[in-house]
Records
---
Amino acid sequence: MALRFEARGAASRAMVLGSPAIAVVLTLAASLVMFASLGTDPVRALQAFFIQPLSSERGVAELMVKATPLVLIALGLSMGFRANVWNIGAEGQLTLGALAGGGLALALYGHESPLLLPLMFAAGIAGGMAWAAIPAFLKTRFNTNEILTSLMLVYVAILLLSYLIHGPWRDPDGFNFPESRLFHDSARLPVLLQGTRLHIGWPIALALAATTWILLARHIIGFQVRVVGLAPAAASFAGFSRTRITWITLLAGGGAAGLAGVMEVAGPIGQIVPVISPGYGFTAIIVAFLGRLHPVGVVFAGLLMALTYLGGEYAQITMNLPNAVTGVFQGMLLFFLLASDILIRYRIRFVP
Amino acid sequence: MSAEPRLRLEGVTRRFPGVLANDDVNLAVEAGEIHALLGENGAGKSTLVKFIYGVQSADSGTLFWEGRPQRIANPKAARRLGIAMVFQHFSLFDAMTVTENIALGLPRSFTRSGLEERIHDVSRRYGLPLDPGRHVHALSVGERQRIEVVRCLLQEPRLLIMDEPTSVLTPQEVEGLFATLRQLSDDGVSILYISHKLQEIRDLCHKATIMRGGRVVAECDPATRSTHELAELMIGSDLTLPRRTSAAGSASPRLEVRHLALASSRLHGTPLNDISFEVLAGEILGIAGIAGNGQQELMDALSGETPLPDDHAIVVDGTPVGASGPNRRRAAGMVFVPEERLGHGAVPQMTLWENALLSGAATSNLVTRGMISGARARAFAAAVVRDFDVRTPGVTQPASSLSGGNLQKFIIGREISHNPGIILALQPTWGVDAGSAAAVRQALIDLAADGAAVLVISQDLEELMEISDRLCVISQGRLSPPMRTMDATASRIGLLMAGS
């Protein structure tokens, strides 16, 4: 008896949605084996990882806090990915957004104006866009590969962050710690739920998901993005400018990542610190694919990936499991997802 | 020896997901026979040949080679039996010489020493002039095909399979190839000749097996049948020829092209050189030529996908549009039908109504302030489906689900529904079933009758002779002066195609 893949006549719509579910199941199965071989009770470990974090109101709120940047970034990235624009430098764009918005908060320290937060948002978006504009310019002008340029700029951004908080932006009263001073209250995001860190970023992310959905499904820009991605020659036939779509999608991705960055420093963190993001910009790539590059899917995938962050912390505290388990989970999920995606175009046949 | 034919197939069946490509096919090829395998695209010819040559297995059925049942596992096994094949698309290395290319495709037993002489021998004996020392990139398509033929002949095959060998040749080159094939047949080599060109088959072949929808529908001696009869067997219904309703157009030009020159942006492309012509209102101008002589580049330049430096190189109803992209040209009244349906003229994964937006977004009011009107786009697509007899369950079907002919009718219909003043079509009936091809041609003729200027660039000479009022020939990026179609003869066009 042998397994064989047989090409389907047409791509299976059911499998487009089924493949993430299969990937989650396989990831859980593989993690059972992993925990067992680590000598931990696998059922208890999975419970600590996936159930306990959600057993309190605070836990659920924390899940949304962590999902906010993931969803925001993945929304922007999925637009680019649909157009075959591979921006994988969202981590850097997030950092620049945090620096631009956070820098404004530090510069206007003590000013109590309702305009401060919107200004910080605008600065964060502009910062992320500016960082994404570099690969956009290089790609449209010199045809460089945006995968390389956007990725390399991540490290430039992180070095810039490091320079600023070790130097000019360091808190003078901070005992030489490489951190900025805490933002003034007027530069902090309003908390939605007392006793939690849940801030207005989550409803903003949801609203943006709805907007992106409409944009992709109903607006001519979204249509152009899809055509450029699916059939570049047809886009050229229709007179859609590839250059324009490259700019739009990179700027959208950069802007969304920048907004996520400023929300992190103005929300849960409250100051500028050496590590603003535990890799949200990279994890959002998994979120985008797990969510099938669809805004609604991205929201659910963002929540799931947020749970892996949260579960990692819980498992570390309650079971002494290494925090690296989070990375292993995320990696396995992407691995199984990419593997399951073959079922979209092929079906499995048993050959006796 | 027995009277067993050289090759005999019995009950060959092959199923692909969703389609029965070969359904109980029987075929017999005698020694020294030139046997035509005739059928439209998708009739199952290629699948059958791949089975014979060992590229693909069959679900059931038996192959007898000189009376003995054989299982041919791969092309190597086929060659060992004496079966050789010349593919439609050559696999040659441009940077290597003729000899090197031939040596690459041969078993190791053909040592390099003495190979050149044998190439000389074979090419002289069968009238296939080839210079063994030349590099492939400097050779014409006809010469490249000769390399493939010589490579096959060196192995002294007893069955030679040729897959649409004349689709890339000039009429003169076709005559040369036929002489070679006849000589091979006299030497006892069997030839399985795949084609859908009826006249050729009548001229060349001793016997014809006609396939339709995966089955053998007839066997006959093609010389005793008229092309019309053969076509009927092939398509299965009466062939309706389009009729010209208006003779020639008025005198005013709607599309003027002046000194168009363009370096090709494509790899191995053909630069365009000082091309000038005009298309009059109510006229169909045909541009003939062999593939790869600048047709694609000319289409890119005319459609605006490659804008030109000189705005006045292309003038539409008095408006210069040479430097603008497709959208401004559409606004000026031009529409385009590209050669590739899937991926260029339509997005395969998108629905028909979404595909209506590709060229209609601006001109047919399907988008209001950036928002797509799904209702209007669906109504537009539904009207195209209805008016142009596109066979599909509905406009929410993806473009990829349509057959080539139906999708082409949809694309032509979509373009014509914009009420164009000028329509440009590249290979409008390429790979399209005969019924749809006739419908497409009729649509172009009707459009011209309404006063539009129609430009058709095609490799199908029969088609151009049938529908166009005037003809030009493109060769190596240059355009011949136009001639009236009624004055055109095959030899005159052939010479122009060959570049003389």
---
Amino acid sequence: MILRGRAHRFGDDVNTDYIISGKYKFKTLDMKELAMHVMEDLDPDFYNKVRPGDFIVAGRNFGCGSSREQAPLAIKYADIAAVLASSFARIFYRNAINTGLPVVEVDTSRIEDGDELEVDLSKGKVVNITRDEEITAKPLPSVMIKILNDGGLANHIKKNKGFALED
Amino acid sequence: MGKTIVEKILSAHSGQDASAGDIVLAEVDQIMGQDGTSPLAIKAFREMEVERVYDPTKIAMVIDHSAPSPNEGVSALHNLMREFKKEQGITLYDIGEGVCHQLMPERGHVGTGDLVVGADSHTCTYGALNAFSTGVGSTDLAAAMATGKLWFKVPPTIRFELKGILPAGAFAKDLILFLIGQVTADGATYKAAEYAGEAISALSIDARMTIANMAIEMGAKAGLMEPDEKLREWLVAHGYTKWNPVYPDPDAVYEKVLEYDVSELEPQVAKPHTVDNVSPISEVAGTPIQQAVIGTCTNGRLEDLRIAASILKGRKVHPEVRLIVAPASRRVFLEAMADGTISALVEAGAAVVTPGCGPCVGTHNGVPSDGENVISTANRNFKGRMGNSNAYIYLASPATVAASALAGEITDPRPYITR
């Protein structure tokens, strides 16, 4: 699958409280409602700026902090196509795959706010169209590819009546 | 080749000779969710189209993050958990019972050698009980409830050799803040930490839990400690009857071993807005504060409340400071009432709130105002964490928070401490 959109640039250590604040996440299971507050503490206008299919691009340790799955879900429901970061916090990374939000571990140091990107998830390749550069991403573990291909962990369990992770 | 604690526990639970880097599917001993994560887990469980949980005796849910409910949205989610409890026969700790990470050890749900997953990032707390316990999201929790299993990538381990005994006025909280400042917020990401040495052996189990609790703040998957006689006695006293101690092999392979001498450690403070932004108290003393918080899964235990009370007893909180105290559990609350700790705190001016997470996650119980400084015994000081992104949160030990509440500014507690 090839995704194309604009980069919204953030820094290092973007924690899950910034992605979706605790003051909202406890109230509802309506992820559309939560999505309106995504990244609000870092950029109050973020939700309105995003066009469907855009990317969040960040530095090191994206998604650190709490285990709230509302964080990847709020991003997904804000119509962000994928998150690209130099590294991810581990619970967020698992949660993203489990809920079907593509996450790409890639050197983001030369991607600027507003750059037009093309992301090939299956090949693990990012093309920065604005700068005419190609960057290779770190591949997903095969266990996670299985879960993503099944449409997330809930579908994986439903389809296989349990875990089916062996090659 | 020798194994670390985490390699041994994951091997035993997967039936596979597991080393760092391997992927294992492991049997889970205990599964925990709280009110911020369980409703989504229940939703994911429904999507899996599984009728019954794998084993209801292994599942506990806790209503602690927004307890009692502050609004109708939260009330509906709490009721979803209560309905699930009735339907599946799991354990539910409702409002007022306490913080999940106090209840799991205190009510005998976890002990040596266990593998525990919890839909809360501070699930790493039970590493102090020699368990491999780690935070997961709601869908992983649902998968564990449905199958009794979860997959893990076996993490490499960083071993912290902590020499010396903490000096008077420096506590477990100061030690873990210091270590986080040293290795930074992602210094242990995808890794386990082992905390060892005489500094750890000398600590109570309460204090060890403070350290393991904050392993996630250095990015770690788990923060483990070796078992000892003190732990065995503690587990027996809390109704956990198995004894399955797991020690690292002498030739265990570590990613690195970091040695620190803690015998002259100063009290430490994490400054806004990251937990690794740590300074010794001498560099931040004098910063004015408007709110002080003692409690949470990091520092709401009996020992913590007693330390705070020993400083506050017979004194008055500064007139421009609100002091909020949240005991970690109903049992802690009762014990602190019985021994006069609560009286000392309340007479000094503290407002005691329901045992639970208190104001830590910004849902209720003391949201700060714009521009205010808060000093708290919690584990996170992210911008907006306590419900207002224009407030500033400093993290410190119960002693430092108590001394600061008296002075109205960040204050070194050592003049108040006699040992």
